[in-house]
Amino acid sequence: MYKYLAILCVSLFTVDAYAESDCLNQLKGTNVKSIVDTCFTFEKGNTDMAILFGTNFSHEFGTKDKPSSEAIYLKKLADNGNPQAQFVWGKFVLGLAYNKESNLEMQKEAEYWIDKSANNGYPLAMFSIVNSYVNSSALKSEEEKMQAIALAELLHDNGFPKAKELLNKIKGNNSKDDFILTINKLYQNHEKLSEQQVLDLASVFSRGRYYYSQHSSLNLGVKNSKLSKDFERSTLLLKHLVKVHKTPEAGYQLGKLLEEKNSGESVKYYLWAAKNEHSEAAGWIGEFYFCTGEKETGMNWLNKAKTLGYEYAEDALGEIEDLGEPTTCQPSWNSWANR
After folding, report:
1. Are strands 40-42 and 57-59 parallel, antiparallel or unpaired?
2. Cα dihedral sign, 317-322-324-330
3. DSSP 8-state code for residue 325
4. What is the DSSP letter of 62?
5. Model pLDDT for residues 105-141, shown as the tens digit of each residue
6. Pick from 65, 137, 154: which is nearest to 106 by CA?
7. CA 311, CA 268: separation in Å to the nearest integer?
8. How far, in Å, are 111, 201, 264, 286, 289 from residue 299 at the CA level?
9. Which residues contact residue 70 at a Cβ distance below 8 angstroms, ignoring those fewer than 6 apart?
10. Residue 307 above 90 pLDDT?
11. Which one of 18, 125, 257, 301 is at 20 to 30 Å from 320 when CA atoms are compared?
């Protein structure tokens, strides 16, 4: 994420991207854009790609183990509390020059110096942290959100470009605390939700993840986010759909969920969903019956699944013809069949 921000920080300046000058002299100045242009040599036309992926460029800072005189000079300034040096050292030397393979430890060290620079009031460092918050795909804590708001307000008060836009985005974004609170409220009021919303909410709890593309009915205002898996909540929501709305998909998903827990109760819900015209449930129950000795019943359900459009029904029927049984038979099914 911090490499993406380097592009934005560089783009705030208007100096020619390929100016040639002495790196050490530029490090003594105050123009970060000129420092980057001078101390790094980017393959023409690939500056953004270089910053993002750590390729197509060279630099004047040596290596972490064998730093150049420029790196030694910059690090001394940073150690002595110079906020611009702290920012350049963190973002461009540690975050880019020394971190072509995106090493996590190096990234953390880079973030440390950027934070230190921001705490010393350096605007570009503040912007870097704020922009990181806005563009992160992971939800941040409420504390991190408040920090980003405070920094954005400082930038805005000092007339920093784009600060107002970023501040509005931060205030409009949910923190992880907001996300968990919203999820809990949805669960508490699940009886007022649509069938699709309850299905999506049950999926979120069973997976321990929210995916915007797969759970769009919930419209939570975030892209993707993790939370603790909750089998009990997911089960309750699906049973609610089966009981109240007679939702075949809920019966099928409940069967899958219980099967993952190695529970014979899964057969009950697969069968219920199959009887309510769920094609995949019909396919599963057909294979189950055939594998546990009730071959005629199994064939009937597999043919039913085929009629309903289950795409793998033909495969199962072919395996029975060629091999004598489907390849999906499970040892645990025999004990479930005897219940």
Report:
1. antiparallel
2. negative
3. S
4. B
5. 888 999 999 999 999 999 999 999 988 888 876 667 7
6. 65
7. 23
8. 62, 35, 21, 6, 8
9. 23, 24, 27, 39, 60, 61, 62
10. yes
11. 257
Matching residue, tokens 């930038």: 155
Spatial distance between the Cα atoms of 14 and 33, rounded to a whole number of angstroms: 8
**Residue 318: other Cβ atoms inside 10 A:** 12
How far apart CA 107 and CA 94 sit, in angstroms, is 7
10 Å Cβ neighbour count for 52? 14
User: Tokens standing for 58?
Assistant: 């060279």
Sequence-distant (6+) residues with CB within 8 A of 241 are: 195, 198, 199, 202, 247, 249, 250
User: What one-letter code names the amino acid at 325?
Assistant: E
In three-state secondary structure terms, 157 is: helix
Each residue of 117-149: b (16+ CB within 10 Å) or e? bbeeebbbbbbbbbbbbbeeeebbeeebbebbb
Q: Across 55-64, 146-155, 161-170, 235-244, which has the greatest mean pLDDT?
A: 235-244
First to last CA, the chain: 54
Residue recorded with tokens 């942290």: 129
Cβ–Cβ under 8 Å, residues 40 and 149: no
